[in-house]
Amino acid sequence: MRRITALSFSFFLFLSLNGQHKDLDFYLTTGLTNSPLLKDYNNRIKSTVIDSMRIKAGQGVMINASGVSAYAPVINGWGEDEVKTDIADLRALVQVSREINWNRNLQNRYQAVNLQNQMSLLEGKLSARDLKKNIITQYILTYGDQQYFELNREVLDMLRQEELIVKKLAENGYYRQTEYLAFTVNIRQQELITEKYNFTLRSDFETLNYLCGIFDTTFYSLASPFLIRAHFATISNSVFYRQFIIDSLKLANSDRQIDFNYQPKLSLFADGGYLSSLNVTPWKNFGISAGLSLTVPVYDGKQKQMQHDQVAISELTRSNYRDFFSVQYRQKVVMLENQIEALERISDKTIEQQKYVRALIDANLILLNNGDIPVSEYLLSVNNYLNVNLMLIDNTIERFSILNELNYWIEK
């Protein structure tokens, strides 16, 4: 009863797979759209726009209001020093100030924000590429499970079609009962194998939905990935190499900012309101004041040079990573291209072998129906048919996987 239930599930799964279809583009579009990480990077880009606005706003006039009310009594000569406290202090002031920044300093700060924006864009592209690669990898895996399941189901159907014939021939004395029993054992074993692929297909299909943020318990037939080799991007145009360029620009920007931080700082300020100690004519203590503040760095224990040295060390580290990546990139691309060519040669030979195996199994099928061939020899031809097709599926899936890896590296 369990066997019948399991096989019925496989049958209905097969009907579902062949009734509704989904392709790779659907899962890529859905996965990229649902990704919270990619939405996070989009929000970071919006945030850097606000950073530029804050720099611009900081160059305008700043207005602050302040108020103080204090009383420090002196009793019998005891109390805080009147010279410092004036006993009482009452103030209500509005202060207006503006910091004067050198134009090159401002340009450098704007460039820092722009570089951060470029880095967020780049990180978003890299994250999207990583997610795309993972989705394609899972899709290829699930598609492979589907191919394995359909192949084993085909072989199972093939054996079932011959079961009654072999049974009748055994009853008529053309085959021994042990041969029929061996045939039956092979069918039961094929049922178990098909059920195992059914389970694997179900699990990997659910994982694909999970990865793309899809809640759907319906099974769909997956179309072939049909991956096409991307146009080769030279290493200087590679999105991975771009991060080294941006890092270099950011380090140069940081190095210049060190010098700008040690420039003289000039600011203007003015305030107006009420300021009084309440000792003499407090009703007349309304007024205004204005001033100019200048700060000139003189000596800081050579910290400026130390900061420059730290930037130089970071640039050396960046150069080492860049050079190592350049070598690895070329080696990776050549290695993947060679693997694809080797698999294509193997697949061509496998397809040629498949024709011979198919012809042999058709010939043995005629002989089996006439009782002119041992059951074991027919089962051997079926096993050869299964093995050669499994090898062809293996080669196809591996080629798709390597092509996915290659496109991940060379795509612009």
Any chance you could write out the topology, listing elements then pairs?
Layout: H1 2-19, E1 21-22, H2 24-34, H3 36-58, E2 62-71, H4 82-85, E3 88-100, H5 103-171, H6 177-212, E4 221-222, H7 239-261, E5 265-276, E6 286-295, H8 303-369, H9 375-410
Parallel strand pairs: 1-4
Antiparallel strand pairs: 2-3, 3-5, 5-6
Please give the CATH class of the largest domain: Mainly Alpha
- Give me the CATH architecture of the largest domain, please: Up-down Bundle
CATH topology of the largest domain: the name is Outer membrane efflux proteins (OEP)
Q: Decide which structural class fits the backbone.
A: alpha+beta
Biggest pleated-sheet summary:
4 strands, antiparallel
Strand order of the largest sheet: 2-3-5-6
* Number of domain units: 2
Query: Can you give the mean pLDDT?
Result: 85
Give Rg in angstroms.
39 Å
What oligomeric state do these chains adopt? single chain
Question: Which percent bin holds the helix content?
Answer: 55-70%
Strand content: 5-15%
Strand count: 6
- Spatial gap, N to C terminus: 56 Å
CATH fourth-tier homologous superfamily of the largest domain = Outer membrane efflux proteins (OEP)
* Separate helix tally: 9
Secondary-structure element order, as H and E?
Answer: HEHHEHEHHEHEEHH
Could you name the ranges where pLDDT drops below 50 across 5 or more consecutive residues?
A: none
